[in-house]
């Protein structure tokens, strides 16, 4: 079964943990000095926050987490069929987890990842080269996701 994923950059981890724990009615399943993650079933989401000097504040990226290799292959196939450049990162360490993942950016530069978590890690992880996504908004300086230029909006 797939789970929606969202990663948000924050400025104060403790305040954000308190806020999201109240919002979700649950404590995070993972807490590190610079990171927290909730694996919720209602709503079914992998919601992560991090406080990193080089990361975007606000929504960094979204994605789909799968539970099985066959689901990952299905989602990878969908990424490749989306007619956009795909970065197949393969096995990697990201967000204190060992994962297999790929990345894609939508036509407006919103970065998506598709991944299967295969275990824990004691380190946050490295940075994928997301320049291959050919998005004007993508950069490769943040772990697990590019830094994005804030979207310009004209309305709420």
UniProtKB/TrEMBL annotation:
Family annotation (Gene3D superfamilies): 2,3-Dihydroxybiphenyl 1,2-Dioxygenase, domain 1 (3.10.180.10)
Keywords: Dioxygenase, Oxidoreductase
Residue ranges constituting the VOC domain according to the UniProt record: 2-117
A Pfam family assignment: Glyoxalase
Single GO term (MF): dioxygenase activity
Biological processes, Gene Ontology terms: response to cadmium ion
NCBIfam families named in the record: ArsI_CadI_VOC
Entry-linked PANTHER family: CADMIUM-INDUCED PROTEIN CADI
Name of this chain's protein: Catechol 2,3-dioxygenase
Organism: Altererythrobacter xiamenensis
């Amino acid at each position: 079964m797939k789970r929606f994923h969202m990663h948000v950059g924050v400025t104060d981890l403790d305040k954000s943990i308190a806020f999201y724990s109240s919002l979700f009615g649950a404590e995070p399943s993972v807490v590190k000095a610079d990171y927290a993650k909730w694996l919720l079933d209602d709503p079914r989401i992998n919601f992560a926050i991090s406080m990193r000097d080089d990361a975007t504040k606000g929504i960094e990226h979204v994605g789909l987490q799968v539970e099985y290799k066959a689901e990952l292959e299905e989602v990878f196939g969908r990424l490749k069929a989306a007619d956009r450049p795909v970065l197949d990162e393969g096995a990697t360490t990201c967000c204190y987890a060992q994962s297999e993942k790929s990345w894609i950016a939508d036509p407006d530069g919103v970065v998506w990842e598709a991944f299967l978590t295969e275990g824990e890690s004691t380190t946050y992880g490295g940075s994928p080269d997301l320049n291959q996504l050919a998005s004007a908004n993508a950069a490769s300086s943040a772990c697990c996701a590019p830094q994005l230029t804030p979207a310009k909006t004209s309305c709420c």
